[in-house]
Write a structure and sequence with these properties.
The structure holds two protein chains of two kinds. Chain A is built from 17 helices and no strands. Chain A is an all-alpha fold. Chain A folds into three domains: 173 residues, Orthogonal Bundle (Cyclin A, domain 1); 91 residues, Orthogonal Bundle (Cyclin A, domain 1); 50 residues. Chain A starts with 27 loop residues before the first helix and ends with a helix. By secondary structure, chain B is α+β, with helices and mostly antiparallel strands. Chain B is built from eleven helices and ten strands. Chain B has a five-stranded antiparallel β-sheet with strand order 1-2-3-5-4, sandwiched between helices. Chain B has a three-stranded antiparallel β-sheet with strand order 6-8-9. In chain B, α4 runs antiparallel to α6. Classes of the chains: A mainly alpha, B alpha+beta. At the A-B interface, α5, α7, α8 and α17 of A face α1, β1, α2, β4 and α4 of B.
Chain lengths: 351, 369
């Protein structure tokens, strides 16, 4: 699914210090969250098709024929909805005065979540809140859950916590994100030391404006397709093309400007917040095609709960049987030390 | 079932828990196996449900950093899965830790052994620092030892990324005896140098076989430190009196390290001294340390497989050997868990003969290097 890692010669880990592989390539972001445009497209298409098939069969199980006139969301529509909630994260971060790192991380989490899940199962309205709360913790800016939810209207602590495990799992517990704004900061520091000096006012202006474009880039798929430094340079080139070119030349990477151009086009083309009307229409249809198993109180929801409970009951019975057997078979002096330990381990296992 | 749930269930099936080996306030550790291969693993089950703020910070930190850091001298996180309200970290199984080895009085450390452990510690730490990660809890107990002798940095529950300029960090980190003076004085802006100080304390402990700076309270820690290394002057450490929690704790003279570490070579003391420089900006970095003459002088570091092992480690590897080969008819048989260390010594190779001579490192004689 993710970009295949370039087969490198097996490096003796002790020799790591000597190897020339960029650190970035050791990151989970590079290994698991970067795609070719085709892969990204395919991933979403398959996810969407599978989700529709699953939800359709749930509807049919509930009452046959009920799914025939339902208009399920396309994956393009799913993306539009997620995009809107990306902008909500930015608003919330402004409200809480969270640092940029929290905002950028939460947005990456939200977007990554929907490469594994569909909005028809989990509405981004809730996932967004959980992604942001999780991001405050993973970036070392923790806030108590109470302080968090009491500042967001109509939100209970359970709304955030109930999804935390699901979000963490969907991210494959890969919490580290390499950010574009950091790469931009690095380029900006470098740019202050170009062979032909640039006036500080111009640098500052270019940086401020580039930072705006970085914000815009977060609404797009750029982070799944390009490296943080490519996106950062593209943002700088949108702000001050000549400056970006001078930096690239000084670094000897001007050959990459072609790729940078592609990123810049993507940022301007896709970095548009969808209109409220469009999203409202999607949301209206979502209410009808939402997975009934996730709607509290519905027949399908109750059926699913019962199924989970039945399975747990079977497991409990099996364990109880094992314990009973162990007691019966066991030597009263406990000679079977290993088996005994086994049972204790099982007993403690509440999973 | 959702795709994500399915993937999680599949992960869970890959591992089995065999027995409980430890329990802490927030986690239970099991010894387990990979179902397909039988490979031994440790499974750390973190109870999540009990925290009102959800996934707790140390779990988040540990998972975040171990997911990114793949290095021979950093413990490997093999998998993560969740079960109901628990988070399970599957870690590579490691036999023992440096604290147990230091405390095992039947073991003799050669200078080459200490050099080997130090090299592995610095390698692991350099990798963390290169990845912008501060460990913030280095101590012998968190340096785990694999069956092949490799040392691995573990317990990333207090680790964090370098803070951005202007953002404060907490100074309530690092176990007291290994905590540098800048943290004791309440510094909220600090760097990789905090970990280096800890490594310096571990280095000294390996030579002394007892903790180097065992303070009884935070205040006493400063006193103990200054008693050992002398009270810093403004010249040694510019600006330290302006740190938030600065308090004068008395004037102690500087005594050369040589007085305590009588058997150590000049290179050894030079590196130790550079790890314990008061001014954090002048303290040696992990990268510089790896190029320090100490590591290139004789004796060369011991090969990890030749390092001293605790009796339980030897028993474990012996049992594994027995399981693979024919049962030794002259041996004590499978019922005996651990053979006495003396018996096991006979299994050692020729390089180890010197070990049976002295029970302790003798500091009264200069080293033969």
């Amino acid at each position: 699914m993710a970009v295949e890692q370039v087969p490198s010669t097996p490096v003796d880990a002790a020799n790591d210090t000597l190897s020339k592989r960029p650190l970035y390539e050791g990151s989970t972001q590079y290994q698991h969250w970067r795609f070719s445009p085709e892969q990204l497209h395919k991933t979403r298409e398959v996810l969407n098709t599978d989700a529709i098939a699953a939800i359709r069969s749930t509807f049919e199980a509930d009452s046959p024929g009920s799914s025939s006139d339902i208009q399920f969301l396309t994956y393009e529509e799913e993306i539009l909805l997620v995009k809107l909630y990306v902008t909500k994260i930015t608003q919330l971060c402004g409200h809480f005065r969270f640092p940029e790192e929290v905002e950028a991380t939460a947005i990456s989490y939200l977007k990554r979540f929907y490469l594994k899940n569909t909005v028809m199962d989990w509405h981004p309205k809730n996932v967004m809140l959980t992604a942001l709360f999780l991001a405050t913790k993973t970036t070392n800016h923790p806030i108590s859950l109470e302080a968090y939810t009491s500042n967001i209207p109509r939100t209970a602590p359970s709304d955030v916590l109930d999804l935390e495990f699901l979000v963490a799992q969907s991210l494959a517990f890969e919490f580290a994100v390499w950010h574009v704004h950091r790469a931009l900061w690095g380029i900006w520091l470098d740019a202050q030391d170009l062979p032909i000096p640039v006036p500080p006012e111009r640098l500052q202006q270019a940086y401020d404006s580039a930072l705006q474009y970085v914000g815009t880039s977060r609404i797009t798929d750029a982070e799944f397709l390009f490296t943080p430094s490519q996106i950062a340079l593209a943002c700088l080139s949108l702000a001050d093309h000549d400056l970006a070119l001078r930096w690239a030349t000084a670094k000897g990477v001007e050959a990459n400007m072609e790729t940078i151009e592609k990123v810049a086009i993507m940022v301007t083309r896709d970095g548009v917040v969808p209109s409220v009307e469009v999203v409202r229409e999607i949301d209206r249809r979502l209410r009808l095609c939402k997975n009934p198993e996730k709607v509290v109180g519905s027949k399908a929801y109750i059926a699913k709960l019962a199924k989970v409970e039945r399975e747990a009951e079977v497991k409990r019975a099996r364990k109880a049987e094992e314990i009973r057997k162990a007691m019966e078979d066991g030597d009263p002096f406990g000679s079977e030390l290993n088996d005994g330990a086994r049972v204790i381990a099982d007993l403690d296992e509440d999973d | 079932m959702d795709v994500v749930e399915k993937a999680n269930a599949a992960r869970q099936k890959r591992w089995t828990k065999d027995r409980k080996v430890g329990e802490g306030t927030y986690a239970v550790v099991y010894q387990g196996r990979e179902a397909a291969t039988g490979r031994k693993v440790a499974i750390k089950k973190i109870k999540v449900g009990q925290f009102k703020d959800g996934l707790d910070m140390s779990a988040v930190r540990e998972v975040k950093y171990l997911k990114e850091l793949a290095h021979q001298n950093v413990i490997a996180l093999l998998d993560v899965f969740s079960s109901k309200t628990n988070l399970n970290l599957v870690l590579e199984f490691l036999d023992t830790d440096l604290e147990m080895i230091i405390k095992d009085r039947s073991l003799v450390f050669l200078p080459a052994d200490i050099k080997s452990w130090m090299a592995m510690t610095f390698r692991g730490l350099e990798f963390c620092h290169r990845n912008f990660v501060l460990h913030r809890d280095l101590k012998p107990n968190n340096l785990l030892i694999a069956s092949d002798g490799q040392l691995k940095l573990a317990d990333f529950g207090l680790a964090r990324d370098f803070a951005d300029p202007g953002y404060k960090m907490t100074c309530q980190v690092i176990t007291r005896w290994y905590r540098p003076p800048e943290l004791l004085f309440g510094a909220r802006y600090y760097s990789t140098a905090v970990d280096i100080w800890s490594v310096g304390c571990i280095f000294a402990e390996l030579m002394l076989r007892t903790p180097y700076l065992p303070g009884e309270s935070d205040m006493d820690q400063l006193k103990t430190t200054f008693r050992a290394l002398g009270t810093p002057t403004e010249e040694d450490w510019p600006g330290h009196t302006k740190l938030p929690d600065y308090v004068p704790v008395g004037q102690f003279p500087k005594t050369p390290l040589r007085e305590l570490f009588t058997a150590a070579t000049a290179d050894t003391l030079n590196l130790l001294g550079k790890c314990l420089i008061y001014e954090p900006r002048k303290r040696i970095s992990a990268k510089e340390a790896l190029s320090h003459p100490y590591f290139f002088a004789l004796p060369y570091p011991s090969h990890p497989s030749k390092l001293p092992k605790t009796a339980s480690q030897l028993a474990a590897s012996r049992m594994a050997e027995e399981a693979e080969t024919n049962v030794d008819m002259n041996g004590p048989g499978p019922a005996v868990k651990a053979a006495p260390p003396n018996r096991l010594k006979r299994k050692m190779s020729g390089d180890d003969i010197g070990r049976s001579v002295a029970r302790k490192l003798d500091f009264s004689q200069p080293a033969a290097a």
